[in-house]
Amino acid sequence: MPLEFHQVDAFTDRPFAGNPAMVYRLDDWLDDALMQRIAAEHNLAETAFVVKEGEAWHIRWFTPASEVPLCGHATLASAKVLFDLYQEAGEVLLFTCLSGELRVTRQGERLELDFPLRPVVPAPASLHAQVDRALGLAAQEVLTLLNADGSVQELMVVLTSEAQVRGFAPHLPALAELPGLGVLITAPGQRHDFVSRYFAPSIGIDEDPVTGSTHCMLMPYWAERLGRSELSAFQCSARGGELLCRLEGERVKIAGHARHIASGRLML
């Protein structure tokens, strides 16, 4: 059974930059275990599967190791594939997922994600100290995104400068021992309003090149700190990616380019 797949570099307008994602447009869902094996085979940060359900596209995202509740760059990649390769009509695509409804709008050469805000809260002192030990540095602030049961979903660490973010050399086994899916580090930017990097070794991603969903945590923090609702962001991984972000109430708008670079068939 051949399945078509498409690879897109998200949050960049050139190949071999931004964050690569694999996209499968399916007529019906595959078995969960099979989708996980497919994601492991591609070995990208995320493989997205989309199925049309009514007026919306149900989207699911898998890292090489597990399914995740929200992913920005693979949603951007999926919209690029649906608009450009499958000729979806209109200017807006509606997606449904584990995190609720998402929308992607065409805005000239860019695509804009409409994602839910993900509010963070200060971490307790004991967790702050644990994070400092794992990172090998003293953070200005440590904040957490919490699950409904109060457990940690993500960690957000505020550093002093862009140079500190760029120069950070992670000890991945130590980061993998921290609670939550991953560790987000951020600081004020030099050419952009803020910069970030994201590490999630516990779910199979040593460093994610560009992470749309983390900007739903970053935007409310930096919008309040900088006193503006529209900000430019750069994720300064080795591949790098630029995002234009806007805070609108309980939603975060994240715009970026996407570049389709490959298509093929998986032979099952």
Beta-strand content bin: 35-45%
- Structure classification: alpha+beta
pLDDT < 50 stretches: none
Count of alpha/pi helices: 6
Distance between the termini: 5 Å
Largest sheet: 18 strands, mixed
Task: Calculate the mean pLDDT score and round it.
Answer: 96
Short description:
With 268 residues, the chain is α+β, with helices and mostly antiparallel strands.
Explain what you see.
- The protein has 268 residues and is an alpha+beta fold.
- It has helices at residues 32-42, 72-84, 125-135, 162-167, 172-176, 215-226, and strands at 2-10, 19-26, 46-53, 56-62, 67-68, 92-97, 100-107, 110-116, 121-122, 141-146, 152-158, 183-188, 194-200, 205-208, 230-235, 241-248, 251-256, 258-267.
- It has an 18-stranded mixed sheet that branches.
- Strand 2, helix 1 (32-42) and strand 3 form a beta-alpha-beta unit.
- It starts with a strand and ends with a strand.
